[in-house]
């Protein structure tokens, strides 16, 4: 804050409330803060803390949505809440520009990226010709590091990679040289390496243009190296507001400390807990080789390959992957988007049929079995899905979703099933009374817990967790990861934990597999791999993980 | 019987049109208003202008061999002249046969087994070449070819050798029973006496076809005109036709056709509702428009009668036609005459007439013959049921027959034609219910209906039937239905649905056919009808009446009792 | 891409073959004797037999069908009595009724049906999308209500009622329009449009409610998408938001449905054609069905089937063009 | 466990309810849907009570009243508005003088039966074929998709006419119409189902259900069908009136219900010439059809919304909650 000049952003006693069928939800409650010209503020908090709602209020985005907004918001001299429609439109994008989270869905899929940026430019520079607007689009795309910008400006969003799309969104924000950038979780959907690049870009832009920045994120690690000040929000209120170093070094609030603790770290070794005796793999499946049971090998993939499409357009998502999962162990599978890890996970539980190689479950090749023949094995191989929204049927209560495998097995009576489901709900840390509630009534983290309960219901021997926490905020991530660890320990079930974030996997894995381009590039015991990564790719991944320490060093 | 109107009726039925054909009988004071010559717009008829014909049925067939018309048809008669033709007068006068290409209506000899015709002088085709007797013979021969089927059966049945002759394409030699001793004379040799031959000679098969111009199945595309107009356009399967003057038509030799308009445009494929609305609105070209196949329906009649101006543009026509209930008297329970009589008594003709469009469109019938003098109409009502049926009498007869709880099935077609249609069937059903007869209705799709009722083995025992005349005479009306020798055992060509084979009746038919004096013959037909009626083989229901609306600029309206439609060869639009 | 079209074309051929076979079997089983109907009302058994022989109706079903296929793929020769008539492939044979080449009959009638289909499509798109837009964006307005009721009434009214009602209103009472009488587009475009207006309205309104609902739900869904929020957050006006960003995505399913409906109109507009007296293939089909004029029925069904299949392909391609994320497969 | 605690406890006062009861509760909250349901209920009730109401009026549907029509004027009913009188509450039919009120009621029986029955058949076949195509292998998909194309290409009326002609005459006609329409006009429903299923199938919860080891049918029934319900119900609401229109067109072409049975379609098919002479004859069945269409449309809208538990709290979820955005399939990235 530079004394003597009017702050760029000034928020006083801001409240935002949403009327719902069950009463009014106060998403933001009496929030006040200021941001000096050229300053950078990080607003952090877990989901539901009101941080995004507050950010939206800066651009008056709650207007006409039914939300009740009070207090005052001033951005570069404009009173946002009192501004007329025209003034507000001029403000949006012209004075303050928003960078949204999901770059794919935030861009119009039908139009060329350059045209979209040009449209925004012409909205605010009425006198600009089409040609000038297109040139400006190329210019800003070039600025955010899109190679061959003039040509790529003609591409549509789906032709861009995730990182390039995020850059394009930032370019759009830059188009009209705004004085404030509001970035709402700009890196959450991205791989760690890309995330690092985008954060670097934001930093550079700030230095170069002197634009103010408000960065909304759940991840203190992301904010740490990018902003000057931190505003920590909880339940719609600011609980802590201080320079970034102060917050990181000497957090006042427990809440802040929890947030800090939740940031996944690479330097934490997995706690070796005395494992329960691994359940023996007795009663081996018919026709299985006797030897398999003895070695404790549960699932064995050999040269597993999966190709999509035919002919020239064929894409091989997984190529010649060999992997062994022993009973009760946890294997982390790490890779960036497109590395084939999800495809591999789906093949391991036979949601996908491999197009090559062998998949042996307890000695029997299940790679080519038909759906009908697979039924006998289904309950033993379960999966926890990435997307907490689409993994639960919105039209069925969560209890019913969890009960599904039990009902399908048909061994238990109705009352027993309900009892078992309540037990499972409790086990994953949910209220047993939630049986009759619907998925939309739960937060993302809770839904993931439901997904875990469902996977546990048939008492499986192996659960494949496909990026189970990548859509969650850091605190929730930590909780869910902890839960999985506990379950693994208590029940002795084998886990295959797929993630794009090395830090997340570290806390749970015995062994680690790093994938790139459908192949395994490195494999080994977790600690070894983290401490002495062999492959340059692994090294790159490790280097990209944001570190709180680094921020301290930089500051 | 059955000529164009009959055909179109059937077609209309099943499908689509909104159908307004009504049925019914010559109403009493029939020579009123529109019937008389000169109806329509005021002033003398003059040549010139364009006449528009708005029709439902496209002129799908235009080959003279394939046409099945009464008296040469309407549009075809503008292009094809025939040996004889119908008298172009309104009302009963119009049921007479008059000479056309020939100098008279035919000279009979040998008990009417031989007929001789002489052609007029100066007859020419549209290209100026002369019309010869050989061309007429060739035209008749063509109609025997399988490729050109469709015409009436009489030539086949009457001409010596006609039953086996296969047409000029297969048998180059021609038909010996038609002699052409010179370019102007034709002599026809018949297998039996046929006093009605002059009526047959009105059909388009008697139109000349120059052999050199014959293109077989494709002749209809460019027929050679002998009449006042030639075809200049024939599109969409006969839906759009344009006729223009044939400059080589010699008016002097044609007393019947006036040919006032310079140009005639036929637009068909329209729905009845549209045709009648267009005629009543009379916008633009529609002011000079007529229709040759569409009647005013009940709803339109209700509307038109409320409007004096419109009402003055309605002509009434009759056409020899009877709608009736047909029995199979060989099948139970209809083998008992008392049952047939009971049903005759039970029928409520008021309901039936209302279902057929009301008293303006149908007249109750108690005779099989149409109520026109030319057919030999002789009034009788053997089972007098009054206007609304005599349920008590019917019940009594059923009691005598031991059929107090009679349950029967009435077959009808699903065509919406006010003839054999569901409306009529339900009216009959409702009336018989009064007499304690439970009637189940069996509706058949119209092709199915046609095929079943005309096949001896599949024929329903009780069904709605109709019959019309190929020309206004008792012969073609009674013989196919009641002549025992015309029972067709195979296929679907039987019309004697009562299977009546009475030698006395058969002999009487032969006797009357020898008579060439139409009036004398008509009396005998009337008497024969009355006698057959006693057996209650059918229950006559109603004779249809036709109400024809025409455009406001139309003059010289002629509607004969032969065709019941407005004669477009007489109409003037100037 | 070539493989794609090749595969779709093969699929189309299969569909059309099945369709034609179904028609053959149906009409073979259905009552009624085409020879009798072709021959004329009072033919005797011998004449009917001759006609049957001439039309090859005595051949086994399979043989008849084979001849039909031969005609379609290689053409056929027919005797007219005096000469030989050659019918080039694709030959659908001669009409039983009047010995005309079915191909010619179809060619004569396609323009009217195509005119009807195109115009009706324009009406249902204009009314349907308009209503859908209004009801998604300005719910409760007078215009919106009126249009919604109009489309519902349209859906609930058979064309033979709505058609006559329109005729009454516009031609009889108001006298704004002439009674429809088909004028070919090539002859007089203005007259063509005036004369087709009522048929377009009658048929278009029958379909428009479906489109209104589809447009509305699709638009609401699109407006809730993130990229709309993006442009809203950049100060773009609501109007251009809808026009430039929402509409295109929202209309993709509408395009797909349009193409499918457009195809089936080719065989399905018979009531409209009959009501307004349009010389289209629907009328042809009605008459041919009654007369069991098999070559004509088969030909119309084949044309309809082809139109539907082509329309489907066009829809898929349009969909893929509209939304590049969708791959053709 | 913070995230558990931070979630507002929704609808705490409400007892857990079963699915059907929840749907009903949500439906009850929508007044327009309730009104529509009431209208439809009334229609069905009137149809069922037709004999009673006929007795109340003292008329029956098939008795001719020749004295009530003007025979010389084409049989137009005597009196105003189609001959409304104390004996004939809605007047009489032109030509026959049959009672319109009773015929409309009896007509409702046939029309609603045919329309609903045919819709049920269409939806069942559409579901079976659509699901089969979407869930089956390549071969099944292409075969069923082509079959659907064939069905869509068939000129419905031509085949309906053929079908009615082939089936023995004593087969109950309304039932025959149900099958004729239902068996021939399911193509578009199948297409809809296939498309919807293909997009539902991609969702993880369907994969999760496969992992339960239940049969494919079980998965389809429990996971896919509920998701299909909303679009299918919305579509069915359009099918119902369009089936009545088809029924009327079939009557128009002479293959509708058998006389003397009345149906709205049959009445409409004979009414189109009576616009000017007896407007009541057209307006009565036409307005019944309109009311039915309107009611079905509004009700279907309500049911669609009520079927989706999310709708109840849509406002609260709001736009752009962080998680909800992840639901979109990830494109080609």
TrEMBL record, chain A:
Domain ABC transporter: start-end pairs: 9-260, 299-542
Keyword hit for Nucleotide-binding: yes
Gene Ontology MF annotations: ATP binding; ATP hydrolysis activity
CDD domains, A to Z: ABC_NikE_OppD_transporters
PROSITE patterns attached to this UniProt entry: ABC_TRANSPORTER_1 (PS00211), ABC_TRANSPORTER_2 (PS50893)
InterPro entries: AAA+_ATPase, ABC_transp_ATP-bind, ABC_transporter-like_ATP-bd, ABC_transporter-like_CS, Oligopep_ABC_C, P-loop_NTPase
BP terms from Gene Ontology: peptide transport; transmembrane transport
SMART domains: AAA
Keywords: ATP-binding, Nucleotide-binding, Transport
Coiled-coil ranges from the UniProt annotation: none
Superkingdom: Bacteria
Pfam families attached to this UniProt entry: ABC_tran, oligo_HPY
Family: Belongs to the ABC transporter superfamily.
Annotated protein name in UniProt: ABC transporter ATP-binding protein
Organism the protein comes from: Streptomyces eurocidicus (Streptoverticillium eurocidicus)
UniProtKB/TrEMBL annotation, chain B:
A single Gene Ontology CC term: ATP-binding cassette (ABC) transporter complex
Domain Solute-binding protein family span(s) in chain numbering: 96-485
Protein species of origin: Streptomyces eurocidicus (Streptoverticillium eurocidicus)
Signal sequence region: 1-26
Keywords, comma-separated and alphabetical: Signal
GO molecular function, one term: peptide transmembrane transporter activity
Biological processes per GO annotation: peptide transport
Domain of life the protein comes from: Bacteria
Protein name: ABC transporter substrate-binding protein
One Pfam family this sequence matches: SBP_bac_5
TrEMBL record, chain C:
InterPro entries listed in its UniProt record: BPD_transp_1_N, MetI-like, MetI-like_sf
Cited Pfam families: BPD_transp_1, BPD_transp_1_N
A biological process term (GO) from this entry: transmembrane transport
Keyword terms: Cell membrane, Membrane, Transmembrane, Transmembrane helix, Transport
Annotated family: Belongs to the binding-protein-dependent transport system permease family.
PANTHER family on file: DIPEPTIDE TRANSPORT SYSTEM PERMEASE PROTEIN DPPB-RELATED
Name of the protein this chain belongs to: ABC transporter permease
Organism field: Streptomyces eurocidicus (Streptoverticillium eurocidicus)
Phylogenetic lineage: Bacteria, Bacillati, Actinomycetota, Actinomycetes, Kitasatosporales
TrEMBL record, chain D:
Chief location category: membrane
Claim: Acetylation is one of the keywords in the record: no
TM region(s), chain numbering: 33-56, 110-135, 147-169, 175-193, 224-246, 282-307
Gene3D superfamilies the record matches: MetI-like (1.10.3720.10)
One Pfam family it belongs to: OppC_N
Topology of this chain in the membrane: Multi-pass membrane protein
Keyword Transcription carried by entry: no
Entry-linked SUPFAM superfamilies: MetI-like (SSF161098)
Keyword list, A-Z: Cell membrane, Membrane, Transmembrane, Transmembrane helix, Transport
CDD domains named in the record: TM_PBP2 (cd06261)
Subcellular location: Cell membrane
Domain of life, per lineage: Bacteria
Domain (ABC transmembrane type-1): residue spans on this chain: 108-300
GO biological process terms on file: transmembrane transport
GO cellular component: plasma membrane
Family: Belongs to the binding-protein-dependent transport system permease family.
The protein, known as: Peptide/nickel transport system permease protein
């Amino acid at each position: 804050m530079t004394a003597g000049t009017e702050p760029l952003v000034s928020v006083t006693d801001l409240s935002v409330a949403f009327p719902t069928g069950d009463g009014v939800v106060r998403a933001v409650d009496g929030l006040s803060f200021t941001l000096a010209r050229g300053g950078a503020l990080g607003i952090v908090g877990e989901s539901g803390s009101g941080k995004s709602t507050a950010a939206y209020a800066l651009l008056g985005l709650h207007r006409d949505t039914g939300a009740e907004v009070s207090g005052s918001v001033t951005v570069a001299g404009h009173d946002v809440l009192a501004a007329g429609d025209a003034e507000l439109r001029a403000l949006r994008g012209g004075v303050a520009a928003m960078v949204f989270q999901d770059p794919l869905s935030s861009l119009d899929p039908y139009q060329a990226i350059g045209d979209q940026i040009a449209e925004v430019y012409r909205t605010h520079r009425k006198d600009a010709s089409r040609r000038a607007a297109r040139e400006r689009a190329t210019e800003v795309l070039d600025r955010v590091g899109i190679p061959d910008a003039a040509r790529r400006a003609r591409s549509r969003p789906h032709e861009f990679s995730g990182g390039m799309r995020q850059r394009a969104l930032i370019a759009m924000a830059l188009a009209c040289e705004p004085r404030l950038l509001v970035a709402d979780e700009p890196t959450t959907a991205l791989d760690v390496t890309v995330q690092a690049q985008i954060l670097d870009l934001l930093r550079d832009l700030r230095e170069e243009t002197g634009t103010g920045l408000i960065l909304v994120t759940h991840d203190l690690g992301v904010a740490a190296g990018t902003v000057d000040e931190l505003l920590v929000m909880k339940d719609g209120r600011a609980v802590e507001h201080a320079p970034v170093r102060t917050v990181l070094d000497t957090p006042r609030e427990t809440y802040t400390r929890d947030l800090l603790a939740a940031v996944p770290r690479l330097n934490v070794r997995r706690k070796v807990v005395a494992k329960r005796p691994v359940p023996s793999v007795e009663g081996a499946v018919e026709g299985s080789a006797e030897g398999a049971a003895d070695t404790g090998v549960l699932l064995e993939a050999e040269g597993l390959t999966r190709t999509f499409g035919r002919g020239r357009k064929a894409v091989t998502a997984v190529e010649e992957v060999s992997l062994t999962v022993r009973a009760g162990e946890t294997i982390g599978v790490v890779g960036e988007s497109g590395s084939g890890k999800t495809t591999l996970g789906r093949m391991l539980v036979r949601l996908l049929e491999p197009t090559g190689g062998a998949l042996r479950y307890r000695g029997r090749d299940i790679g080519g079995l038909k759906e009908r023949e697979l039924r006998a094995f289904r309950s033993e191989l379960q999966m926890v899905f990435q997307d907490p929204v689409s993994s639960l049927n919105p039209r069925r209560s969560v209890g019913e979703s969890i009960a599904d495998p039990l009902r399908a097995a048909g061994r238990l009576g109705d009352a027993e099933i309900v009892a078992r489901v309540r037990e499972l709900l409790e086990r994953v840390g949910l209220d047993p009374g939630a049986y009759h509630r619907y998925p939309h009534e739960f937060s993302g983290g809770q839904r993931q817990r439901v997904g875990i309960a469902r996977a546990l219901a048939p008492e499986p021997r192996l659960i494949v967790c496909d990026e189970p926490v990548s859509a969650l905020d850091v605190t929730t991530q930590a909780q869910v990861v902890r839960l999985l660890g506990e379950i693994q320990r208590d029940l002795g079930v084998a886990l295959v934990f797929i993630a794009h974030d090395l830090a997340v996997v570290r806390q749970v894995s015995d062994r680690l597999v790093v994938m790139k381009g459908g192949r395994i590039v490195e494999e080994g015991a977790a600690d070894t791999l983290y401490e002495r990564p062999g492959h340059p790719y692994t090294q790159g991944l490790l280097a990209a993980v944001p570190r709180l320490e680094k921020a301290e060093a930089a500051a | 019987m059955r000529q164009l109107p009959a055909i179109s009726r059937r077609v209309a039925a099943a499908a689509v049109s909104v159908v307004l054909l009504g049925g019914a009988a010559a109403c009493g004071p029939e020579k009123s208003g529109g019937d008389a010559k000169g109806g329509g717009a005021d002033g003398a008829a003059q040549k010139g202008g364009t006449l528009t014909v708005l029709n439902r049925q496209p002129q799908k067939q235009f080959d003279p061999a394939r046409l099945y018309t009464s008296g040469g048809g309407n549009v075809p008669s503008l292009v094809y002249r025939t040996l004889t033709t119908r008298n172009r007068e309104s009302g009963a006068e119009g049921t007479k046969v008059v000479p056309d290409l020939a100098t008279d209506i035919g000279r009979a000899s040998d008990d009417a087994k031989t007929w001789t015709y002489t052609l007029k002088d100066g007859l020419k085709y549209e290209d100026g070449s002369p019309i010869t007797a050989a061309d007429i013979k060739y035209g008749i021969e063509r109609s025997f070819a399988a490729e050109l089927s469709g015409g009436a059966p009489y030539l086949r049945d009457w001409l010596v050798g006609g039953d086996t002759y296969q047409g000029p394409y297969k048998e180059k030699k021609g038909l010996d029973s038609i002699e052409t001793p010179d370019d102007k004379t034709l002599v026809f040799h018949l297998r039996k006496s046929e006093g009605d031959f002059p009526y047959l000679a009105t059909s388009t098969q008697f139109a000349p076809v120059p052999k050199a111009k014959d293109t077989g199945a494709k002749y209809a595309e460019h027929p050679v005109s002998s009449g006042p107009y030639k075809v200049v356009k024939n599109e969409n399967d006969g839906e759009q036709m344009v006729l223009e003057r044939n400059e080589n038509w010699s008016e002097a030799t044609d007393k019947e056709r006036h040919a006032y308009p310079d140009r005639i445009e036929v637009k068909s494929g329209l729905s009845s509702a549209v045709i009648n609305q267009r005629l009543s609105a009379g916008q633009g070209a529609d002011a000079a428009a007529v229709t040759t196949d569409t009647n005013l329906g009940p709803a339109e009649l209700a509307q038109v009668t409320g409007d004096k101006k419109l009402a003055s543009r309605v002509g009434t026509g009759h056409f020899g036609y009877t709608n009736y209930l047909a029995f199979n008297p060989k099948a139970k329970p209809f083998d008992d005459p008392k049952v047939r009589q009971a049903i005759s008594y039970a029928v409520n003709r008021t309901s039936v007439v209302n279902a057929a469009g009301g008293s303006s469109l149908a007249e109750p019938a108690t005779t099989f013959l149409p109520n026109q003098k030319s057919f030999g109409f002789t009034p009788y009502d053997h089972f007098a049921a009054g206007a609304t049926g005599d349920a008590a009498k019917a019940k009594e007869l059923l009691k005598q027959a031991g059929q107090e709880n009679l349950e029967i099935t009435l077959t009808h077609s699903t065509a919406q034609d006010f003839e054999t249609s569901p409306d009529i069937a339900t009216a009959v059903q409702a009336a018989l219910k009064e007499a304690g007869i439970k009637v189940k209705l069996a509706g058949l799709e119209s092709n199915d209906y046609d095929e079943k009722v005309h096949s001896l083995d599949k024929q329903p025992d009780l069904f709605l039937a109709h019959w019309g005349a190929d020309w206004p005479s008792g012969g073609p009306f009674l013989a196919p239905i009641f002549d025992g020798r015309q029972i067709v055992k195979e296929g679907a060509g039987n019309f004697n649905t009562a299977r009546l084979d009475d030698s006395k009746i058969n002999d009487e038919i032969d006797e009357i056919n020898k008579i060439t004096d139409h009036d004398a013959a008509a009396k005998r037909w009337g008497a024969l009808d009355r006698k057959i009626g006693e057996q209650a083989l059918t229950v006559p229901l109603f004779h249809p009446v036709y109400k024809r609306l025409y455009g406001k600029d139309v003059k010289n309206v002629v509607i004969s009792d032969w065709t019941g439609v407005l004669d477009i060869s007489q109409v003037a639009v100037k | 891409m070539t493989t794609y079209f090749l595969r779709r074309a093969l699929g189309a051929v299969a569909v059309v073959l099945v369709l034609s076979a179904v028609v053959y079997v149906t009409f073979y089983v259905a009552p009624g004797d085409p020879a009798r109907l072709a021959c004329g009302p009072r033919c005797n058994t011998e004449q009917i037999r001759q006609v049957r022989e001439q039309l090859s109706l005595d051949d086994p079903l399979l043989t008849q069908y084979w001849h039909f296929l031969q005609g379609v793929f290689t053409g056929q020769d027919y005797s007219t009595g005096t000469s030989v008539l050659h019918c080039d492939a694709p030959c659908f044979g001669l009409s039983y009724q009047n010995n005309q080449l079915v191909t010619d009959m179809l060619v004569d009638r396609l323009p009217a049906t195509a005119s009807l289909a195109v115009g009706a499509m324009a009406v249902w798109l204009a009314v349907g999308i308009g209503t859908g837009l209004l009801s998604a964006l300005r719910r409760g307005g007078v215009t919106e209500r009126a249009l919604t009721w109009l489309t519902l009434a349209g859906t609930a009214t058979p064309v033979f009622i709505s058609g006559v009602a329109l005729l009454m209103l516009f031609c009889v009472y108001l006298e704004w329009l002439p009674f429809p009488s088909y004028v070919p587009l090539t002859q007089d475009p203005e007259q063509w449009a005036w004369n087709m207006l009522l048929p377009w309205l009658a048929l278009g309104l029958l379909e428009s409610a479906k489109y209104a609902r589809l447009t509305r739900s699709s638009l609401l869904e699109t407006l809730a998408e993130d990229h709309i929020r993006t442009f809203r957050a950049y100060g773009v006006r609501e109007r251009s938001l809808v026009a430039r960003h929402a509409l295109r995505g929202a209309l993709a399913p509408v395009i797909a449905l349009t193409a499918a409906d457009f195809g089936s109109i080719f065989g399905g507009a018979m009531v409209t054609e009959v009501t307004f007296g349009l010389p289209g293939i629907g009328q042809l089909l009605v008459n041919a069905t009654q007369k069991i004029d098999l070559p004509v029925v088969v030909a119309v069904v084949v044309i309809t089937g082809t139109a539907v299949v082509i329309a489907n392909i066009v829809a898929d391609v349009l969909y893929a063009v509209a939304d590049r994320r969708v791959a053709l497969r | 466990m913070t995230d558990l605690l931070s979630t507002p406890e929704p609808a705490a006062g409400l007892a857990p309810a079963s699915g059907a009861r929840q749907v009903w509760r949500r439906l009850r909250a929508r007044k327009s849907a309730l009104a529509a349901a009431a209208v439809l209920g009334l229609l069905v009730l009137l149809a069922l009570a037709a004999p009673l109401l006929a007795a109340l009026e003292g008329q029956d549907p098939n008795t001719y009243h020749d004295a009530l029509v003007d025979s010389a004027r084409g049989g137009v009913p005597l009196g105003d508005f189609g001959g409304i009188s104390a004996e004939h509450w809605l007047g009489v039919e032109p030509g026959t003088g049959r009672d319109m009120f009773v015929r409309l009621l009896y007509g409702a029986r046939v029309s609603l039966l045919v329309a609903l029955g045919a819709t049920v058949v269409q939806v069942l076949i559409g579901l079976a074929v659509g699901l089969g195509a979407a869930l089956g292998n390549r071969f099944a998909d292409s075969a069923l998709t082509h079959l659907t194309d064939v069905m869509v290409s068939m000129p419905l009326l031509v085949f309906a006419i053929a079908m009615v002609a082939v089936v023995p005459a004593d087969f109950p006609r309304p039932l025959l119409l149900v099958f004729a329409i239902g068996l021939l006009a399911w193509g578009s429903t199948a297409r809809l189902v296939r498309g919807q299923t293909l997009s539902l199938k991609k969702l993880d919860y369907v994969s999760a259900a496969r992992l339960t080891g239940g049969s494919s049918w079980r998965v389809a029934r429990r996971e896919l069908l509920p998701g299909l319900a909303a679009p299918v119900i919305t579509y069915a609401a359009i099918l119902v009136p369009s089936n009545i229109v088809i029924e009327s067109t079939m009557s128009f072409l002479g293959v509708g219900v058998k006389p003397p049975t009345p149906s709205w379609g049959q009445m409409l098919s004979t009414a189109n010439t009576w616009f000017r002479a007896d407007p009541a004859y057209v307006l009565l069945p036409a307005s019944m059809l309109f009311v039915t269409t309107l009611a079905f449309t509004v009700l279907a809208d309500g049911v669609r919304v009520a079927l989706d538990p999310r709708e109840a709290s849509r406002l609260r979820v709001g736009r752009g909650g962080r998680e909800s955005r992840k639901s979109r399939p990830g494109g080609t990235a």
